[in-house]
Amino acid sequence: MAIDLVSKYQNAVDELFKNESKRSLVTNQDYSFVGANSIRVYNVSTAEMHDYNREGTGNGSRYGNIDTLAATTQLFKLSKDRSFNFVIDALDLDETGAVLEAAKALARQQREVVIPEIDAYTYNVMCESAGTTPTAVELTDANIYDEICKASAALDDAEVPETNRVLIVTPTVYRIMKKCKEIVLETNVGQDMRLQGVVSNLDGASIQKVPANRLPAKFGFMLCHPCATTAPVKLTSAVLHENPPGVSGWLVEGRYNYGAFVPTNKKPAIYYQAIV
C-alpha cells in the first residue's frame, strides 16, 4: 500500500552567506557631491629650485627665473545610477508563513546584491587607477614576501603615509602568505577591524581579506592607502510601498547613485599586482 508522507514547510529562509561592505577601510569621503552630480578638483603645479645669485647679474632676478604655476582640473562624476524593484503579493506573504516579509526582503537585497556590487565596482576602479602595476607574476610562498616588499618600497618612494596602509588579498593569496616562512603575521586584531575584513597585520599594514568575487579576475594583491580613493554614495533610497496602485501587497523600490575615483596625484598610493 502506497503512503503519502507529510511534507512540512518551515517558517524560515535558507539565507546566503554574504559579507558586509569592506570598502570603507580603503576609501575616503574627502569630496562633497551635495547638489551636484560631478565635481572638479584642481591640480596645482610647483616651482623649481634655483641657486640664489647674490650678484644679481643676468636677465633674471636673484632668485632665478620666475615660474608661472599651472592650475588644471580633473572632472569626477558619479557614473553609477542603479536601481531595483520587486513586488510581494499579500497572499504570497500570508501563504508562505511570512517569509517574504518586505523589510527582511529589502535587507536581504541590500546585503546580497547592492553591497557586493558597489564593493566590486570600487575595487575595480582602484585596480585600474593604480599608480604602479608591475607585470603579472605567479605568486608562491617563495616569492610573495619579496613582491609585497616591492609594493611597500614603491609607496615609500612616493612618500605615501606609512600609517593606515592596507594590503588587500584574496583568501587564496592569504593562504600562500601563511605558508611563507619569511612572513610573520600579527593576528591580534580588534573585533571592529575584523568586521571590515582585517585578519592580521604585516610590516605595519593591515591585511584585508576580500572574497575573490568582489575583485577583478587575476587579482593578486593590492597595497594602498585610503587617501587615494574617494568612493561616495550620494543617494541610497529604499522605499516600501504598501498597497500601491495596481498591487495588492508591497512594492519595494531602491536606487543607489555612487561612484569611485582616484585623483592623479594620489595614484602612487595604490600598487596593484596581478597574477598570471
SSE layout and pairing:
Layout: E1 38-44, E2 71-77, E3 80-89, H1 90-94, H2 102-129, H3 144-157, E4 166-169, H4 171-179, H5 191-194, E5 198-202, E6 205-209, E7 219-224, E8 233-242, E9 249-258, E10 270-274
Parallel strand pairs: 4-6
Antiparallel strand pairs: 1-2, 3-9, 4-7, 5-6, 7-10, 8-9
Explain what the structure shows.
The chain has one domain. It has 276 residues and is of the alpha+beta class. The protein is built from five helices and ten strands, in the order E-E-E-H-H-H-E-H-H-E-E-E-E-E-E.
Features:
alpha+beta; five-stranded mixed beta sheet; 276 residues; 25% strand
Largest sheet composition? 5 strands, mixed
Number of strands: 10
Rg, alpha carbons: 26 Å
Q: What's the mean pLDDT score? A: 89
* SSE ordering: EEEHHHEHHEEEEEE
Give start-end ranges of low-pLDDT stretches. Answer: 6-16
Across the major sheet, the strand order is: 5-6-4-7-10
Brief rundown of the structure:
This protein is an alpha+beta fold and 276 residues long. The chain is 22% helix and 25% strand.
